[in-house]
Amino acid sequence: MPRPAVVLLAATAVSGLAGYLVTFFVAAAVTPAAYATFAVFWSTLFLVVGALGGIQQEITRAAGVRDAVDGMASLGRFAVAAALAAVIVLLATAPLWTLVAGGHPLTVVALVAGAGAYCLVAVTSGALYGARAWLPIATLILVDGVLRLAGVLVSLALPEPERALEIAVVLPFPLALAIVLPVVARRLRGIRADVPLARLARNTLLAVLAAGASAVLISGFPALVSAATPGEPAAALAPLLLALMITRAPIVIPAMAMQSLLIVRFRDAGVRLVLLAVALVGVATALLAVLAAVAGPALLLAGFGPDYAVDGALLAALVASSGLIAAVIVGGAGLLAASRHSVYVAGWVVAVVVTVAAFLLPLPAEPRIVVAALAGPGAALLVQLVALAARRVEVAA
């Protein structure tokens, strides 16, 4: 495995472990109903952050020019503009986020502040990926996860931790950037996009649309489940929401962390490498699904108690869903590397449409959720594979 991949995966593993511990400590410290409320806020925040992750993907692709070039976009100015745009859009749609994430005003304030700060993180990370600055990127990932865990632990020690937990989840975005940015500022100086500002804005908007669609299936899926099952008590949904968060992490988080690196790698390679990477994700997913079916229920019971019991078949299906999402992330990196933004967006939009349609099926809650979890990313992967196969034929010709 290339050294950059090892460094990034190690940082992602520690940050992912921190996320697991957040889930464990919150679930252990509060009631199932309170945990469900926290899980929906977490899901909503990272739905927004996941959408804004499209900024990082496009900046990674575009930040290939090391010296200032007339007419090319300045990344610093673009970062500020993106942060302001995100804040304005979220404030303008505040009633929607209040409905989804909870009725407390501080919830929306935390969401807006986190989104603005993350835009700055996304541009910085994308520029670092473009500069192949692997160690600073890994440091940013690591510090973010560790700070979030520390903030959550402090919040849980308070008499009423609900609002403090929201702040603790958001603060690591600006704090991690404040820690890392002074160290890498000189390295980032002079890096510009490879396209003018208008083209960069257009490409970024397409990447954000696709990333937003992907975030619906990843971070936002628990919130979607909650919205699609209004008659279910929060405590009844808690085991499924916990299972979703746990089964997403081992496959999807590494794929997301590696996407910018994959864009860099695929930019200089052929479609065959992209297809091989997708196949490897499939093999890993199959193994993890079997493991989840066999050992998952006992591990959940031992770790969280009988209130969070989930059967093995459901866990295996959720792992398979996560594997499909990871495969779509990898295939999407290949499409972005080839500047196929339109196809990239189309795949994720198809996934969301199919997922929402599945939620409307006349089925009981659990099978309906499983069908939605599998059908959406499966449809997106099909779109991508057709496009990649056509691209391979085109290159061969």
Automatic annotation (TrEMBL):
Membrane topology note: Multi-pass membrane protein
Cellular component terms per the entry's GO annotation: plasma membrane
Swiss-Prot/TrEMBL keywords: Cell membrane, Membrane, Transmembrane, Transmembrane helix
The UniProt record lists the keyword Oxidoreductase: no
TM helices/strands, residue ranges: 7-27, 33-55, 75-100, 106-130, 137-158, 164-184, 205-228, 234-253, 273-301, 313-336, 343-363, 369-390
Keyword Cell cycle: no
Protein location: Cell membrane
Name by which UniProt lists this protein: Membrane protein
Originating species: Pseudolysinimonas yzui
